Amino acid sequence: MKQNLALYGLLLLMISSGLISCGNSFNVFSPDQDVAFGQSVRDEILANTFEYTVWNREDYPEPYHVLDSITQEILNTGSVKYKDRFPWELYIIENDEIPNAFCAPGGYIFVYTGLMKYVHTVDELAGVMAHEIAHADCRHSTSQLTKQYGISIILQLILGENGAFIGDLTNSLITLGYSRQNEKEADSYGVTYLCNSGFEADASKRFFQRLSEESGSFTMPTFLSTHPDDGSRVQNIEKQSLEMNCPRPSQTIEKDLRLIRLFLPDYSL
Q: Quick check: 56 and 48 in contact, CB under 8 A?
């Protein structure tokens, strides 16, 4: 009986002092556990060479240099909460049919070659990457796991009987979707990040507009197929940029994607 009371007392303490992510979402996991989950997701992807062809950095230095530069510029804006706590590792997946990117918990970023070929400017590429970095920085994945599994997660963690359970959660993360609120927050934080960078803060609106118009010709990214634009998404991005008085750079880094053409020679607008 005393043991049960102690467990419930600890449960209440965890709930009352729970970790909070963006939007005040309750999250039972710690930031360090986000990193551990992200490492597991990364390892799963790197080991699954049948579904994922991940480019080696030594063989493709130019595209990694471009994406690393964009990532660092976003992280150096001072607006990313876990800039120094998450590793922010970046990987390129070869698949020209998917104009997408995603960021696993803890800052493990994956960018498809299809995204690099689909965007029209580096600003658009930075906009999508800022959106995905925001998902990790707001800890949306583990917040969603907390909602999905509820009290069972907390009890497993309290009892310490979580070895196999953690493995199941890792598998869930690979296919986990985000809520509409998560997507809205990622859009908003993405603008905030880029407002303090050398990129156009609202450039992602053009990317989302084209995706909505041309979605029938390719595999739809999860963040659009699960939560399609209802007409307000682009408007909200543009409105926030104006309200924050974000600068509109007259010339941004390789705006015509000359660098991207160097390592994707078949690229065409």
A: no
| Nearest CA among 116, 123, 176, 186 for reference residue 146 | 176
Within 10 angstroms of residue 216's Cβ, the number of other Cβ atoms is 6
Is 86 within 8 Å of 35 (Cβ atoms)? yes
- The one-letter amino acid code at 117 reads K
SS (H, E, C) 164-177: HHHHHHHHHHHHCC
Beta strands 108-112; 89-93: pairing state:
parallel
| pLDDT, the chain, mean | 78
At residue 212, φ and ψ (nearest 5 deg) are -65, -35
Query: Residues 208, 212, 213, CA angle at the centre, nearest 5°?
Result: 120
Q: What is the pTM of this model?
A: 0.82
Q: Quick one: DSSP state of residue 234?
A: H
Please name the residue ranges forming H helices in 95-179: 113-118, 122-137, 140-149, 151-159, 163-175
Residue with token string 């659009």: 224
- Candidates 70, 69, 121, 130; CA nearest to 103 is 130
14 sits in which H/E element: helix 2-16
Tokens of 28: 């039972």
**pLDDT band at residue 1 using 50, 70 and 90 as cut-offs:** very low
Paired with 102 in beta bridges are 110
How many contiguous H segments (helices) and E segments (strands) does the chain have?
13, 5
